[in-house]
Amino acid sequence: MALTLFPIAAHGQDMVRLGKDDIREILTGYHDVPSANYWARLEPESARGALMELSSDPGELVHIRTRATLALANFSDSRVEQYLLATIGREDREYVRAAAVTAYSRAAGEAALGELEKAMVDKDSLVQRAAIKSLGAMGGERSRGILEKSLETEKNPATRDLLKKSLAKASRR
């Protein structure tokens, strides 16, 4: 199936409008979610809407839902941030919830710190790991403090190792 591309002019650059089926096809690939440069070429409103629709569809394949959720960080606005927060709180699939934690941290920046701290004690280890990695990627004094506090009490050796790696990464930022 060929992608249907609709060039449109916006903000002095040519942008492309893709439909939900086109974006689903992009997300089904064997490779990672396309880079921020790829998403920047798409018309934001239609891409944001299609990604939210794919992310929230319980009938959609979980890897499509996860990739759509991650891609939403490239179209951040208050609606996306609220959507991601709601997904963290209500989603049953841990892969989608972990992706929402990662995307929310990228979209909201330091405003996500409280949510990341909560996610570090989530019942699902994938969600916990996403929060730990996000704090490491974010860096900064507050992120380091959250990671250090967790390291003091964490008993699981694998989680302790990830905390140490994320703390080292956060310290370099």
Describe what this molecule looks like in 3D:
There is one protein chain. The protein has helices at residues 20-27, 36-40, 44-56, 62-71, 78-90, 94-108, 113-119, 125-138, 141-153, 157-172; strands spanning 6-10, 13-17. It is mainly alpha-helical. The chain has 2 domains: 8-75, no CATH class; 97-173, Leucine-rich Repeat Variant (Alpha Horseshoe), CATH 1.25.10. It has a two-stranded antiparallel ribbon with strand order 1-2. The radius of gyration is 17 Å and the shape is globular. Residues 1-12 have low confidence and may be disordered.
CATH third-level topology of the largest domain: Leucine-rich Repeat Variant
**Beta content:** 5-15%
For the largest sheet, list the strands in their spatial order: 1-2
Main sheet characteristics? 2 strands, antiparallel
Structural class: mainly alpha
Separation of termini?
A: 43 Å
Instruction: State the fourth-level CATH superfamily of the largest domain.
Output: Leucine-rich Repeat Variant
Q: What top-tier CATH class of the largest domain fits best?
A: Mainly Alpha
Radius of gyration equals 17 Å
Shape: globular
Mean of residue pLDDT? 90
Helices and strands, in order, run as EEHHHHHHHHHH
Structural domain tally: 2
Per DSSP E runs of 2 or more residues, the count of β-strands stands at 2
Low-pLDDT ranges: 1-12
How many helices? The count is: 10
